[in-house]
Design a protein that fits this description.
This protein has four helices and two strands; from the N terminus they run βαβααα. Helix 3 packs across helix 4. With 90 residues, the chain is mainly α.
Length: 90
């Protein structure tokens, strides 16, 4: 956020909703460039996370329905013995 009218409550709200920085006019060029670099870094991280999430979805889709049942229970934090008992696996 680049503003000529700084207000603490607006700055807090902006940061809570994802602003990289809250810069008040007048500003130094280095401050603005630093904020832009952080924004691009955040975008790169979000893009990598999205690709990773998509890869995980594809991997899970290749599992058999039974394997997906086991994975779901593992994700819930259930121990192996409980999963085996619940699914009738010996």
């Amino acid at each position: 956020i680049l503003t000529g009218h700084a207000d603490v409550s607006i700055a807090v709200q902006a940061m809570k909703t994802g602003a990289v920085d809250f810069i008040e006019k007048p500003f130094e060029k280095a401050v603005l460039l630093s904020a832009i670099e952080r924004a691009f870094a955040r975008l790169a991280h979000a893009d990598a996370a999205a690709r990773s999430s998509e890869a995980a979805k594809l991997w899970v889709a290749r599992l058999t329905p039974r394997e997906q049942e086991v994975l779901e229970r593992l994700a819930q934090g259930l121990p192996n013995k409980t999963i085996a008992y619940d699914l009738g696996i010996s």
